[in-house]
Please model this.
Amino acid sequence: MKEYSTYLFDVGGTLITFDEWRRAQHYAERAARVGVHASPDDVFKILETLNYELPERSKHLKLSLLPAREQRAFWLDFWAEGFRQIGVREEDARGFVAELLDTVNGGNFQKVFEDVAPSLEQLQARGKRLGIISNFSPNCQTLLQALGIAHFFDFFIVSGILGIEKPDPEIFYAAIRAAQQPVEKLVYIGDSIYHDVEGARGAGMDGILIDRADRFPNFTGTRIKDLREL
Model:
């Protein structure tokens, strides 16, 4: 693999994800309240699939730039889909999701992928600079601090702050300026072909697809299944 001076990362689906097992337990418990019985294992499979579908579901929606009410509506509908698929009726599904979102605001269901910290530690040990380019709300850095990985990164380029979302090349240009390195020395790693790899290429930057679940075996660009491959 080509040598780079600066490694730039997407956040959701690349560094962090929903803790679907813990969320599945909450779903199963609440579904049982209204007489719908599903095992946490079955719910987990549904939520995991939905999580993988998230980049496609938000592909043409500038989610982080929407007003707070519209963002909430998206997440309410997205999370409610898990309840719908196990047979919970719409009114109860939305009520349960509103409860979950209000109680924990989504943050408590986030977790860091197991390969992230070891990979970032090794890249830093090799003298690499690390940065973030993410379609995320303005609390991106705060959330990563709470999850214990913000200290790895030299700068954060966040759509909810800049008002620009990937794959717009302008958000990548902002990262190039922050890195103060020639674009050929930079590489971007993300889990979405459209937002991340194609977005990076549109700004003249190399892109690497992280595909932990082997969902894109026919992808012709650089693809890894574990960040430690970097």
About this structure: The chain is about 45% helix and 15% strand. Residues 16 and 112 are 4 Å apart (CA to CA).
